[in-house]
Amino acid sequence: MIHKYESRRIRVVIRRVLLEVWDPIGIKDEPKAQSEYDGYIGDVYKLLIGGASDLEITERLLYIVRETMRLEKAAAADMGETVSALRNIHLPPHAD
């Protein structure tokens, strides 16, 4: 089990990655839209903590972009930088 403070720290970093790296609808510079991707943080958190593969993370992000945001032209290659940034988040050793 991850301590709640560590969980919060990880979620804050995920939020930053989604906003600054992923940002499929281009809102990172819109102050009133900064919470737009917050609904996806939990899913990404669970994937990371659960030891999901890069492919599983990519597929989830693509699903969100294609099915929720209706941006059908999104491709797996578009998710590479985001997956890399998510993988760079320091997770506690017991989070595997």
Explained architecture:
This protein is mostly helical and 96 residues long. It is built from 4 helices and no strands. It has one domain (4-89). The chain is globular, with a radius of gyration of 13 Å. The protein has helices at residues 4-22, 41-49, 54-68, 80-87. Helix 1 (4-22) packs across helix 2 (41-49), helix 1 runs antiparallel to helix 4 (80-87) and helix 2 (41-49) runs antiparallel to helix 3 (54-68). The protein starts with a helix and ends in a 9-residue tail after the last helix.
Helix content: 40-55%
Indicate the low-confidence ranges by residue numbers. Answer: none
Give the SSE order as H and E letters.
HHHH
The figure for the number of domains is 1
Quote the average pLDDT: 93
Nearest-angstrom radius of gyration?
Answer: 13 Å
- Total helices: the number is 4
- What's the quaternary structure here? single chain
Our measurement of the CA-to-CA distance between the termini, rounded to an integer number of angstroms, reads: 10 Å
- Largest pleated sheet: none
Q: What is the approximate shape? A: globular
Structural class: mainly alpha
Q: How many DSSP E strands? A: 0
Strand content: under 5%
